[in-house]
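Each record in this resource describes a single protein on a pair of labelled lines. An example record follows, reproduced without changes.
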Amino acid sequence: MAKIDKDQIPVQALLIPKTILYTGKFLNWISPFLASRFGARLFLTPFKYPRPEREKTMADRSKKENVRIDKINREVVIYSYGDSEKKILLVHGWSGSGTQLSMIADSLLQQGYSTISFDAPAHGEAPGKRSNMLHFVETIYQLEKTYGPFIGAIGHSLGGMSLLRATKFGLPIQKLVIIGTANSITKITQDFAKNLQLGQKTAKLMKEFFDSHYGEDLDNYSGAVSAEGIKIPTLIVHDKQDVDVHYSSAIEINDKLENGTLILTEKLGHRKILGNQKVIDQIVEFIVVS
């Protein structure tokens, strides 16, 4: 039997337990409305997993502290890695942690930079069960005030989308890097419903529920919407075989940026791209070169 390449399976499809899949399918058959509420709860619940071996050096050598984010009244874990005053903010993706970009952090350290990163609410070692993009954005704003200023910021997936939003509304950085970042909130919802084996009617009801709950059309937080008006140099890195976020998102975001540079890779997927040395070298060069 051929070995399954996990990078060709969306991470949600890998991590969602079969019992939850069966429950969702049953609810979808009974009532798309009930299935949408079930799906919405899962959508806001990140998965936790053991820290990979490659991230343990950063975890062990960082100064860690728990910090409450005032605007959302939630606690995060901060990682201060290195002692340089030239600081880069790192923002992990959904179900990630503050050490997810450790290999990029190590390369930045070698170039004389330090990094600040965090476990978002309900991620990594941070307490809680549920989180959302607004938590990421408010954490970014507070960290800039208390740990900044940051020369630049690097975000993966939802971390990239959060940084686009924060930068559009005043995060004072000089350079931005986003990796494997999605564009449309509606598309994210549809993909999640698909991975949960729910119908598109259920996906539509989920999106309507979120819009009602948060009091606005969440597509306002989409990557390309946030990209409009961002003037700083921005590097967009995305793999053509990313099964979690289609690379068309990168093209759509780049089209809206005033000063964007797009790098499309091959056969690295959504997660391996973070550990590819060629990609890391390109990111570090972008940050370092004036």
Summary: The beta strands are 63-69, 74-81, 87-91, 114-119, 152-156, 175-179, 234-239, 260-265. Residues 133-147 form the longest helix (15 residues). The first strand starts at residue 63 and ends at 69. The radius of gyration is 18 Å.
